[in-house]
Amino acid sequence: MPLITVKLIEGVFTPEQKVEIIEKLTDTMVAIEGENLRQLTFVLVEEVKQGDWGVGGKSLTAADVHRLQDSVAA
């Protein structure tokens, strides 16, 4: 009975994207463990308050992540 925990910065992903994350992570686990365990595969999405997440000694906000997403897409 796996429990997958995903931590995200608050405000980065839409509710629809979070649903997609849950669905795809569940599908991935089912591909490994078998369809019978789909109903026992838990995915917990936790949102971390903006500024409470840091990388490289700097706190990140949703705006920082969106800027990074835009620079990759360009």
SSE arrangement:
Elements lengths: L2 E7 L5 H19 L8 E7 L4 E3 L2 E3 L1 H12 L1
Parallel strand pairs: 1-2
Antiparallel strand pairs: 3-4
Describe the structure.
This protein is an alpha+beta fold and 74 residues long. The strands form 2 sheets. The chain has a two-stranded parallel ribbon. It has a two-stranded antiparallel sheet with strand order 3-4. The longest helix is centred in the first third of the chain and has 19 residues. The protein is elongated, with a radius of gyration of 15 Å.
Contiguous uncertain segments of 5+ residues: none
Strand content: 25-35%
CA distance, first residue to last residue: 41 Å
Quaternary class? single chain
Order of the strands making up the biggest sheet: 1-2
Indicate the structural class: alpha+beta
Mean pLDDT over all positions: 93
Total E-strand runs: 4
The helical percent reads: 40-55%
